[in-house]
Amino acid sequence: MTALLELEDVEARYGPVRALHGISLAVDEGSVVAVLGPNGAGKTTTLRAVSGTVTRAGRIVFAGRPLDRLGPAAAARLGIAHVPEGRGTFSELTVWENLRLGAYTRRGSIEPELERVFSYFPWLAERRRQQAGTLSGGEQQMLALARAFLHRPRLLLLDEPSLGLAPVLVTEIFRIVRELNEEEGLTVLVVEQNAHLALQVAQAGYVLEAGRVALAGSSDELRADDSVRRSYLGY
Amino acid sequence: MRQRLPALVSLVAVAAVLTALPFVLSSYNTSLVTQVGIFFIAVLGLNILTGYSGQISIGHGAFMAIGGYTTAVMSRDHHTDLIVTMLMALAICFVLGLLVGIPALRLSGVYLALATFALAISIPQLPLQWSTFLGGTGGVQSSNPDVRFLWHTAPAMPERWLYGTAWAAAALLFLAAWLILRGRVGRAFRAIRDSEIAATASGVELPVYKTLAFGISAAYAGVAGSLFVLATNGFAQPTEFGVILSLQLLVGAAVAGLGSLWGVLVGAAFVGLLPQVSTSVPVIGSDHGRDVVFGMMVVIVMLLLPEGIAGLLARLRLLVRA
Amino acid sequence: METITSPISGLRARGVALGSVVPIYLLLVACGVTLLVGCLQSGLFARLTVSGLAVGAAYGSLALALVLIYRATHVINFAQGELAMATTYVAYQLIQWGLSYWEAFFATLAIAFMIGTLLQVALIRPVQHRSQVAAVIVTVGLFILIDGIVNWIWGGNFKFMQSPFGTGAYTIGGVDIEHLYVGMFGVVLASVVLVWALFRFTKLGLGMRAAALRPAAASLVGVRVDAMLALGWGLAAVLGAVAGLMYEPSQFTLDPTLMQTALVYAFAAAVLGGLDSPVGAVVGGLAIGVFLNLLVGYVPAISSELQLPFAFALLLAILLVKPSGLFGQREVRRV
Questions:
Q1: What SS3 state is found at A218?
Q2: Which contacts (CB < 8 Å, 24+ apart) does range A119-127 have?
Q3: In Å, what is the CA distance from C309 to each residue of B161, B218, C12?
Q4: Which of A51, A89, A99, A104 would you mutate first to test chain C, the one with the most C CBs within 10 A?
Q5: Residue C332: DSSP 8-state
Q6: Residues of A with Cβ-Cβ distance to C213 under 8 angstroms
Q7: Digit-coded pLDDT (tens) for A98-142
Q8: Percent of chain B with pLDDT over 90
Q9: CATH number of the domain located at residue range(s) A3-233 in this protein
Q10: What residues are paired with A35 via a beta bridge?
Q11: What distances in angstroms separate CA B15 from CA A27, B19, C90, C306, one per listed residue?
Q12: Which pLDDT belongs to residue C315?
């Protein structure tokens, strides 16, 4: 399997502060890869480096194309959907408009995808005119996933989907992510604090610490690893 | 003290240059530098308001108008000594500034800017309404007394007297600003500029200091306005104090940037000298050429130095340190 | 433009305390009713109201341009009026060169669009990320520059542009309503509606709204934010051109000071309506136009010179009561 996304020695900084000190990772097409680690390890920054929302250096190749000079909008047009921390919801716009924006880079009809989206999230159809900012956290997360799906991306970057959500909802979200991956073949790179859930859905994972890759492997390997079990899985 | 030495030296140097200039330059050029001095005072006041208490005003032309008319009217009706009228302008504008500062507390950012813009437009219209008292379009001419310059009495406002008065006032007001900003008031101002919420949480009474900032900056503008009228032959006219004046002050303050006195000097020179200097651009011809050149310069300077001279100096300082 | 199915449910969804907005709508309805009654009662009132609406439409168009730019870039474009004036001169020149009025009109709109986008790309984009204040000062510089250029090219004396609406008048109920005013109002209304439709119904308009509301999130979905901002400036310039072209006939002559007081009223209208509310800008413009006309017409003590300061006294009063303007939303500052 060819790697859809490859990062080689990628650095990133916020102004004078370096957040990533040379990260290398690979995401195979059709797989779910988890990025784990404590707060401040650079997990979110890694996603931002891929979508081009942070100052970065190093080699990033997506579907054979180097992403060096491209900004987020260009990355989106190449087929990278980034659901950031905070979901990137346009609170002032309606649910329908948010969905429509998800498909912004698409030409032609979005009917088939819309139907799929409404089958995953039936309540979205009923509440299309509701202002997105009035949705609950869980609903906004689902809206974000729906929006990303409408993009028909080749790669989904998912940042902390469980943040601020009740456990029941979190399980539901991850179930949907798994379904999207298995049914639709969506490649996902997910950053997650909840290592347990993430490793259940992912086939492979990377553990980041202080801006570097501390550990990498398949999810089975990671689950079996002692340090991972102690620090992130709680046993 | 050692850190202060370069600043002190440059200050003395500037003072020396300024003292020498009127004896070296022609009368016309001396009057130009007087204009710079006047703008220096006004922009300094604006700097205190924006730079230190974070409030934006596009209306200080109105305070200049009030100060100017104070001088003209007092001189015309009561033959008050001109220096005394300046002090009156200072006091009146201080109080009015406080009064404006109070409702200004309710407005923030853009809304405040536009509300003060409203002031800038409305105030100069008042003389047209109260034309008996304030002279209407004809303006108010202050009487032409003999002016007393220390021990030497000279007839009506020669250039050098104006120059000396303007820059002496500038020096005094600069000193006053320095003293104010060093102390508790200055610290409060800086705290407000950095974060209003944090300042309040630390016990700084926002309304008091923000209103105070308005009063002080208005007072400075008032003095500048007073001098402005004196510099135009003691003649106060509504058209002199239109919106353009407030916009010029704004440009001066923007070119100056925040936090640098050199910036204020450069900003004052920019608005005081450039329009006059660009009159002599041959191709386009006087009035319109002036506007075209000045407008272009404003755009170019802002594109090159978005944070004004102060920003440039700050960056240079970083480079020197590195 | 806000997308609300019905004002009340939309507002509730926005979480705005109903108490603060319903009174505004009631006030507007009350004003509307008063105006209607007044028009029916008095011919003078009707004429003043009609001409007020016409001039107010021009103010509203200019105010809308200001709000568009402010919403997208948080910059107050001081040069909006001068730009409108300059594009009116362009139309004048095109007519001098032989085009018919309406040919010149549409050509000017196209030219205005190009100038607007060009200005944003060349002069505003470089500074707006570094300092919004600097961007505003650039517009101040543009104000002076454009004024100078127009004076230089065409001179400051009065020019005459044929009104496209003729000098006739409709007679309704014994009152003469001039074609000019109906035309002014109609053209501005049409432009505003077209712009509204662009924002509301097209993908491009949605992209522009998204870019203005949340530029970071917008670029993540593929919206080219910088391009959207440039388009916004272009559209604003078009609205300004419409304002200038429609305002000029009511002033009878064309000279460089054409849009200076109009700009001031447009500011007032924008602030009155709330700087983030396009609807507010247009309503504000109409309100100011009508109100000032009626004031000057009925209150002898207030001469036309006092209009300006009076408008602002009123504006200040409103700002003190509702600092974010009639339709604006109060900014919640995160601690």
A1: strand
A2: A120/A146, A120/A149, A120/A176, A120/A179, A120/A180, A121/A146, A124/A95, A124/A99, A127/A95
A3: 37, 20, 37
A4: A104
A5: P
A6: 90, 92-93
A7: 999 999 998 888 888 888 888 888 888 888 888 898 988 888 988
A8: 17
A9: 3.40.50.300
A10: A191, A206
A11: 68, 6, 51, 45
A12: 74
CB contact under 8 A, C141 and B119: no
Contact criterion met (CB below 8 Å) for B157 and B31: no
Phi, psi dihedral angles at A204 (to 5 degrees): -145, 165
Q: What is the dihedral of CA C51, C53, C56, C58, to 10 degrees?
A: -80
For chain C, list the contacting chains (3+ Cβ pairs, <8 Å): A, B
Q: Where are the domains of chain B?
A: 30-256
- CA-nearest of C260, C257, C249, C311 to C284 is C311
**Cβ-based contacts of C5 with chain A (< 8 Å):** 129
User: Residues C247, C259: contact at Cβ < 8 Å?
Assistant: yes
For strand A204-209 and strand A212-218, is the pairing parallel, antiparallel, or unpaired? antiparallel
CA distance B14 to B25: 16
- For tokens 């030219």, the residue is C111
Q: What is the largest CA-CA distance in chain B?
A: 64
Candidates A82, A97, A147; nearest CB to C206: A97
Mean pLDDT of C26-41: 83
Helix, strand or coil, per DSSP, at residue B194: helix
Length of chain B equals: 322
Per-residue pLDDT reduced to its tens digit, C123-145: 988 888 877 788 888 998 999 89
Predicted TM-score of the model (pTM): 0.85
Complete domains list, chain C, with CATH: 7-321 (1.10.3470)
> Does residue C223 carry a pLDDT above 90?
yes
